[in-house]
Amino acid sequence: MGCGEGGYSRALLKQGAIVTAVDCSETFTTYVTNKAREESLDIRALCRNANELTGIIDNTFDVVLCSMMLMDVEDLDGTLKEIYRVIKPNGRVFISILHPCFKPKDSKWILDDDKIKVLVSDYFNPTEWVGEIKGIDTSVIYRHRTLSEYIKAFVRNKFTVVDLNEPIPSEEQMDMSSRIKWLSKVPMYMFVELEK
């Protein structure tokens, strides 16, 4: 779900998985199809909104991967209902999102004497705003939800939360860059595993 340019889809194909790549952008699904073809990979790419997975029958998938997309969907409950519908019983959903506690609209990450500080304001106000991604000349809609909103939505849509992880970089990773080292102090990402 939210396959973007398809990097994870191609990696899973190369590991022997049967992959259906889904994204709401026809530009991305076309790119995924063409790139897979270039690499002699067989992929099914569908342009769909996450809350309307038409053409996918119930109980189809063993695993659904939602990498950095669930935070962007407008209809969180509708999306989770559709994921629940298309995943097999006992199937797993793997989610990565920007950590909702430290990435609301007016948050600021500040480096002060090699220490990272995060200023967070208005955390409890779910909000939507238009912003940009550095280096890309296009506007993006960002959405902020609280951590409890996510957990309640998972439970409300009948999922079991199997694991929740705030990743910490290894020593080797921290040696690569001071920006990565910051992530050993404050998590930027949150990973969640759900089960149907």
From TrEMBL:
GO terms for molecular function: S-adenosylmethionine-dependent methyltransferase activity. GO terms for biological process: methylation. It comes from the Bacteria. Residues 1-95 form the Methyltransferase type domain. InterPro entries: Methyltransf_11 (IPR013216), SAM-dependent_MTases_sf (IPR029063). Gene3D superfamilies: Vaccinia Virus protein VP39 (3.40.50.150). The keyword Transferase applies. The keyword Transferase applies. Pfam families: Methyltransf_11. Keywords: Methyltransferase, Transferase. SUPFAM superfamilies: S-adenosyl-L-methionine-dependent methyltransferases (SSF53335). This is Class I SAM-dependent methyltransferase. It comes from Vallitalea longa.
